Amino acid sequence: MRTKISMSRLGRRRWLTAVIATLAAIAAVTAFGVGPAAAVHDTGAFELDGNATNNPAVAGDDWDNVCHQVIHSDCSTTSDTSALGGATAVDWVAEMNPSSSIFTGGGSKDPQDINQWAWKDAGGLPDKDNLLHSFAARYTAPVGQVLYFGSDRLDNSGDAQQGFWFFQNSIGLGNNSVGGGTGFTGVHRNGDLLVISDFSNGGTTSTITVYKWDTTCTKTTGTTVGACGDANLRILGTSTNANCASTAANDQFCGIVNPSTITMPWSFTDKSGTPNNGALNGEFYEGGVNLTALGLGNLCFSSVAAETRSSTSTTATLKDFTLGQLGSCTSRLTTQSSITGSTSIGTGSVSVSDSATVTVDGVSTWAGTVQFHLRGPIGSPLEVSTDIGGLVAVSNTTPTVQSATATVTAVGDYCWSAHFHATTPPTGVPDADDTGVNECFTVTPVTPALATTAGPDVVLGNLITDTATLTGTANQPGTPAINPTTAGAPAGGTITFTLFGPNNCTTVAFTSSPVPVSGDGTYGPVSFTPTAVGTYHWAATYSGSPPNTLGTSHNTDCTDANEDVIVTDTTAITSAQTWLPNDTGTVTSAGGAALNGTMSDQLYTGDNCGATSGSAVSGQLYQRSLTNATSPQSLTTTNTTFSVTASTSVSWLVTFTSTDPNVGGSSHCESTSLTITN
Question: Cα(351)–Cα(345) distance, rounded to whole angstroms?
């Protein structure tokens, strides 16, 4: 069983004996030609004084500050809750079980990549190689980026060699089988830092060598700065006088052990059972390196491991280790869309852009790129997801950058996102993303205007007309909807005209066939011939052109007087004359004798009573009998059935047939010529 306390997730155990000491600065120990004034032991950020307790009279943090910042407990000698010197990253690991996590397997060597290392939980280590705690802290100081580290161990009986690895990638304990043990997760990255120290003679002799992981080193080429100390390990500095108590003022690295018994500011019990958390001489070690002076100031380290070893040789057998997460570099990306909320599609396209601000913690100098990305319309069949523009350079001097402008041609919801990638090799700065959760906006459709113009009033039997004018439409989406290579066509859809009436807004007198639309314009006219007089009302409805243009209508409530058409009618008077011929005949005796006999009156066509032309009209013979009638006597016709409707001549033959032999008979033909104009 392994019990651990760690800043992130691992806590292993025992820090080495007389631990790594100072990394030499000065003359023969400079790295890559970096200049002087790089002292790591007197930066004012941290106390490298051979104990773990903060001295209020001295500027900077000590390990009790770091302990309290990480775990907020078990650090009873201080109430400080943060690193006073402004640490950008801290790590503190407690390995409560001395039998936890030791190296095993032949591949667990510093020149081998981490995927060849193996570990197991087992006892049996020499007590001087058994680590109990490890710790690390990083600061930005006037001399540059400085990194401090340390450990305490179970026993001080004998010299101790120790190594400290600082990994850019996150390293953890795996569960795969490797070399008779269990493997690790993660691998090396060029630039990973290794500090190997040897403290002997109670700490009076201190030898430190600083390496970086460099895959161009395929074998050992030397022992001086710049040479390959082993496969994958290039020497950055080395010194046999790297004690922080005696090193020069411009040291690039140094280390120190407690020269006498000290009180540890956390729970600590050594093999000897020294009371009051006491650590004997050489059971506590701390050291530091000036990363900037060694050419590593822009590296970010995610994980740190302390290891004990059989010697300072790079191929020495590795023994105990603790593993923690330093997490010294973080990056954040925030973006701001040029449009927040919603905006209209307008005439069919919207120009949008995004800006991104990158924040990197842990290093002062960094560079990288930002790739902007736009997705939408989300959930639509037209949805696309595409990069907007190319990679945009970003750096600590220009942390805010602008995307290229994108053209959006479809309504719907869109979301920006951006991806930051560090490019200054090898930085160790992690990538960062803004997922667009707060970068979404909505493009809304337009509602066009539809106006109609009715034709003039007409007389019944003539056509009535209507014309529509459509404005404010948006083009259809392009292909693709974002930054299209093919422009969208004008708005489609149809306009349907409806005629209500007469004299109401409920009776549909006429519905037109749909009239196709192609963008803004005038459509029609449509026409209809009414069959009844009255007031008619035109209305029009546009179907819309999804998704960019909504439908609309005009005058469906018949309130627009300009859309009324009045249908009227006229009258004409004609005459058709009808004449009913009638006659009155009178018979008179010359001497006044009484009249006996028969009077008759016959209607003839023609003007001579049938003498030469014409004929008697059937049914138009009228007779009267006279007996001793006083002269004169009359006979009047009563024609009601025979009518004359056109110009013609008719005649009446009046006859008296006497039955008195002493009175003679008589006859008379009377004609009439008629002229009728209708």
Answer: 10
Q: How many angstroms separate the Cα of 37 from the Cα of each of 42, 149, 213?
A: 10, 21, 26
Largest distance between two CA atoms of the chain: 201
Q: Does residue 48 surpass a pLDDT of 80?
A: yes
Question: Positive or negative CA dihedral for 323, 327, 329, 334?
Answer: positive
Give the Cα separation of 279 and 481 in Å (integer): 70
Q: Same CATH fold, 449-568 and 331-444?
A: yes
Q: Which of 91, 136, 168 is nearest to 329 (CA)?
A: 168
* CA dist., res. 7 & res. 93, Å (int): 7
Q: Is the pLDDT of residue 16 over 70?
A: no
The mean pLDDT of 608-628, rounded to a whole number, is 93
Of the pLDDT bands very low, low, confident and very high (cuts 50, 70, 90), residue 344 is very high
Q: Are 618 and 603 in contact (CB under 8 A)?
A: no
Q: What pLDDT, on a 0 to 100 scale, did the predictor assign at position 22?
A: 31
Per-domain residue ranges of the chain = 4-325, 331-444, 449-568, 584-674
Query: How many beta carbons lie within 10 A of that of residue 66, not counting itself?
Result: 27
- Average the pLDDT over each of 40-49, 84-93, 163-172, 604-613 and give the range with the smallest value: 84-93
- 69, 265 Cβ separation under 8 angstroms: no
Q: Cα–Cα distance between 189 and 232 in angstroms, integer?
A: 10
What's the CA gap between 546 and 587, in Å, rounded?
102
Distance (Å, whole) CA 499 – CA 509:
5
pTM across the whole model:
0.63
What is the phi-psi region of residue 622: left when phi exceeds 0, alpha when psi lies from -120 to 50, beta otherwise?
A: beta
User: DSSP H helical segments within 329-468, as ranges?
Assistant: none
**Whole-number Å distance between alpha carbons of 137 and 301:** 11
pLDDT of 244 strictly over 80: yes
Angle at CA of residue 188, ends 28 and 290, nearest 5°: 35
If one counts every other C-beta atom within 10 angstroms of the C-beta of residue 305, the result is: 25
Write the CATH number of the domain with boundaries 449-568: 2.60.40.1930
Residue range 331-444 in CATH 2.120.10.30: no
**How far apart (Å, rounded) are the C-alpha atoms in residues 660 and 74?**
174
Say how many C-beta atoms besides its own lie within 10 A of residue 475's C-beta.
20
Q: Which of 15, 331, 454 has the alpha carbon at shortest distance from 199?
A: 15
Confidence of residue 10 (pLDDT cuts 50, 70, 90): very low
199 forms beta bridges with 160, 206
Q: Do 262 and 278 touch, CB atoms closer than 8 A?
A: yes
Please report the DSSP string for 447-466 in residue order.
Answer: --EEEEEE---EETTS-EEE
